[in-house]
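Entry type: protein chain
Record version: 2
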Amino acid sequence: MEFCELDVFAKALKVSDKRHLLHHCFQALMDHGVRVSEVLADSYSQHCCVIHAADQAVKDRAIQLGLSLEGFLSDAGWYSDSERVMVACFQLCKLTESFAYWTKCLECCIRLLHSRNLYCRFGEADLCYQEAQYYAQKLSCLRDSINISSLYCEFCSLFFVRSQYDEAYRWSVTALKALSSFLSPKVIVDVLRQASKACVVKREFRRAEMLVTEAVHIAKEAFGMKHPKYSDALLDYSFYLLNVDQIRQSVHVYQAALDVRQSVFGGNNIHVAVAHEDLAYALYVHEYSSGNFNDAREHAEKAIQIMTKILPADHLLMASSKRVKALILEEIAIDSHNKETEARLLQEALDLHLVALALAKKAFGEENVQTAKHYGNLGRLYQSMHRYNEAQEMHLKAIAIKEKLLGPEDYEVALSVGHLASLYNYDMELYTEAEQLYLRSISIGKKLFGDSYSGLEYDYRGLLRLYNTTGNFQRAEDYSIILQRWNRLRHQNAISQLQLHDIKPQCDTIEEVVRLFFDINT
């Protein structure tokens, strides 16, 4: 209980080489119902109110404590309390008008953006985005001595989590340009990670791979393989792997990231929950053809179990976990030989999808990639429930939104187009429309991922079925041969995938990384 005393905890924060032990002790108290983070945030906020009129030395010590305490709480995933600490610290910094305190104000903005982005407080993050730009402008003459790369990284993160990918990519490039070897490894790793994710969603995979592998290497060298920052880099490397169709390898890396986070935090922690959710989805994709979803379901339920204990019921972070569990339940239901079990699981999946859609629409509005994904998921589920008109409506909504936001040749568009083709082919007997949709999905998939792309299997099998049904046996034979060739390519691709220990840096300095980024032809 001494950890609840601000002075005692302040002393513990100074022992930086034992930080992992501090995280363990802190999490153990939280798991036993002692709201240490909340108590510390309250104590610090009250302390800042008391010392508003104190001399500058007292306020400076409080500012330094606030930055240290916020850093710990944010690293531990207690974003709501870390935000309250930083708001109080920010108010202290604002009391003094000088370059030195404007720099501190900018640092407060960066940290507030980080917590608000990750905790999905987008309205508050927008206000902070504007304040950060105000202080960056005031400090523009000191550009080389302020944390401008981290600022741009958080700008990128804000737009990324809201699925505004063009703006996210623009800020990621700006952040990369501001990188230098003089910055801390933490800043460098975070910028590389965030820029890599922005490249992934813009389908600039060569740039994404280079950036994220450098981030993994730097994190490993600077922090070690048992540090949370290394697990952060692994999660983003897994995200890249999953998006370039290296699914088996992504599962392996997601598991490694989860192991690190459980070792550092354990218990009911948001970082652990997110890692469970990410692994659940990768396992769902990996086991899609086998139908063995037990491990995927276990991780999805673990993620929801943790989040339910530490988040409000209507928190946006719940939407993604509910979506993943719903996808898994739908596949288990389809494979069930018991009609009652199938109906129960499909209804549970529907309830989860509808909650997730409502949360997404509340946070992002109608015209957003995340909302479109939820419409697409509902379309697939309605097809499984034999509600074909509703399924068609959902798929058409998803396609319209994705095309408008991402363009007609994006992977997400191909995914929805393929699902609509399946509906038309298997359940609505609209074969001409289905054929055109399948061919469009195949064209996009091959353009983005090559001839061995895993998603091609379902389009090829769909066309095989379509041509056999409509009596076009020559085309059926053609696609039978194409499917056999695809199977051989998938086998070769599985053999050639890199292992985690094979990752090697391509550059000796961060300046070389940035130069290589701009040299890569996308």
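Comment: The chain has 24 helices and no strands.
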